[in-house]
Amino acid sequence: MLDRGRGALVLVSSLSGLLPVAPRAATYAATKAFLASLGRSLHVEVAGTGVQVMVLCPGFTRTGFQEASDWDQRRVPTLLWTSTPQVVDRALRDLERGRVVSIPGLPNRVLATAARVMPAGLTRAVTGRVMRRYA
Ligand SMILES: NC(=O)c1ccc[n+]([C@@H]2O[C@H](COP(=O)([O-])OP(=O)(O)OC[C@H]3O[C@@H](n4cnc5c(N)ncnc54)[C@H](OP(=O)(O)O)[C@@H]3O)[C@@H](O)[C@H]2O)c1
User: How far is 72 from 9, CA to CA, in rounded Å?
Assistant: First the structure.
């Protein structure tokens, strides 16, 4: 891509990768946090080369994931679910805009912002409660 001077790399992370803690999803969220960090750094590294790197951070999205994972997500509020077309549309739009992180779904963007600006202790407490309830 760098030799050609064009291309795009979308790293599929997760909203959980942007949270400071994710009890009951510790390993999963840690791998997603790795991707988020990797993508953000690569985005800066390739700036101006014609190659784009973006981190995609979907929240709960109805796919085969629910059957494959052992999380019981039936109690997750409807408001927090996104569809796959919604995720893909938002990702492509954000890629066009040159965004570094794409978070499909307004509720998910609000959650990600809250996790960033709230005091760390409060975020830990809230996230702990939510994950105990829904994960
Ligand atoms: N769904 C959500 O709520 C959600 C939220 C945040 C992030 N994500 C992320 O989105 C990504 C896609 O997940 P999804 O929701 O689309 O789940 P999915 O429907 O279960 O799809 C997972 C895909 O990964 C493929 N796969 C699994 N193990 C593989 C392996 N070892 N080598 C090559 N391919 C493999 C599967 O192929 P086969 O069908 O051939 O097994 C399948 O196509 C994942 O990285 C997930 O962490 C999902």
Answer: 31
- Model confidence, pTM: 0.93
Ligand 1 in contact with 60 (CB < 6 A)?
A: yes
Residue 27: CB within 6 Å of ligand 1? no
CATH number of the 7-134 domain: 3.40.50.720
Q: What pLDDT, in 10s, does the model give residues 21-34?
A: 888 889 999 999 99
**Per residue in 85-95, is it b (16+ CB within 10 Å) or e — as a string?**
eebeebbeebb
Q: Which residues, at least 6 apart from 118, have a Cβ–Cβ distance to it below 8 Å?
A: 126
Centre of ligand 1 to C-alpha 73, Å, is: 16
Active site residue 28: yes
pLDDT tens profile 38-69: 999 999 999 999 999 999 999 999 998 887 87
- The residue whose C-alpha atom lies closest to atom 1 belonging to ligand 1 is 61
69 lines ligand 1 (CB under 6 A): no
- In this predicted structure, what is the pLDDT of residue 59? 94
